[in-house]
Design a protein that fits this description.
Elements lengths: L1 H13 L7 E10 L1 H5 L7 E10 L6 H4 L19 H11 L3 E7 L3 E9 L5 H7 L12 E5 L3 H13 L3 E5 L2 H11 L4 E5 L8 H11 L4 E6 L3 H6 L9 E3 L4 H12 L2
Parallel strand pairs: 5-6, 5-7, 7-8, 8-9
Antiparallel strand pairs: 1-2, 2-4, 3-4
């Protein structure tokens, strides 16, 4: 584990040659069946997460799919073996865990390691055995802005099942076009970092200028601590961290709409 952390930290350092911020945090999370269905070799359940997030150069999408390959590196000759992330990946898989990398060019990278949590005690088991509460529903209009087509499809499907009127867009400019076509939504549910030259915060500011009554809920693969500490969002904003479950999505959307 120490070697895994060191490898990721060194990569973050190399991605921030002019300086930057590195945030390391831990937490208990649950990976849902919905998330596992979209991810290879992921078992749903309780995990301990360690997230390491930087404000570096980021990883290009065409490179992201290859970063766990042995000897693959984007560093100059003599500056890296290409074995760092490959070894981290091997270690995580051997523990029965999962590793996820979220990255945006020019904005930074967040590496999340999920390790299976130790067996729960009897008290926790009793709590988890309770019948799930009914999901919060609604009939308001929601615009989902998300560049990942799989995540966007999941969010749109879940929100429509809950009764909301949902439209969608893949980036800020297309979201503004959708608003000009169909009107401002009751809720803007937007990713923080997106392609298209406009961040989620900039999109929210533009929408607020034409429709001050629109509520805003952000989502991101970065953790809330790293999002705020790295200056991408102000403290106190509403953020739903990826990956999220259906019940967390329903609860958070209803919470923001009811403010």
């Amino acid at each position: 584990m120490e070697t895994a952390i060191l490898n990721i930290v060194l990569n973050a350092r190399d991605a921030m040659p002019q300086g930057g911020k590195l945030t390391i945090e831990t937490g208990n999370v649950e990976l849902s069946e919905d998330y596992a269905a979209q991810s290879v070799e992921v078992t749903p359940g309780q995990y301990v997460m360690m997230a390491l997030s930087d404000t570096g150069s980021g990883i290009a999408p065409e490179v992201l799919d290859r970063i766990f390959e042995p000897f693959f590196t984007t560093k100059p000759v003599g500056k890296g073996t290409g074995l760092g992330l490959s070894m981290v990946h091997g270690f995580v898989k051997q523990t029965g865990g999962h590793i996820q990398i979220y990255s945006e060019v020019g904005h930074g990278t967040s590496v999340k390691i999920f390790l299976p949590r130790a067996d729960a005690d009897a008290t926790t088991v009793v709590k988890s055995a309770r019948a799930p509460a009914a999901l919060a529903t609604g009939a308001e209009s929601i615009l989902v802005v998300e560049d990942d087509p799989y995540v966007r499809t999941f969010a749109v499907q879940q929100l429509r099942r809950l009764g909301y009127k949902v439209t969608e867009a893949s980036d800020g400019p297309s979201a503004l076009h959708e608003i000009s076509r169909s009107g401002a939504p009751d809720l803007l549910f937007t990713d923080v970092i997106m392609p298209g030259g406009m961040t989620g915060r900039q999109l929210a500011e533009r929408v607020g200028q034409v429709a001050s009554g629109t509520k805003v809920l952000y989502t991101s693969g970065y953790t809330e601590n790293s999002i705020v500490h790295h200056g991408r969002l102000d403290p106190g904003v509403h953020l739903l961290q990826k990956p999220y479950k259906s019940d967390k999505l329903a609860k958070k959307v209803r919470e923001v709409l009811d403010l």
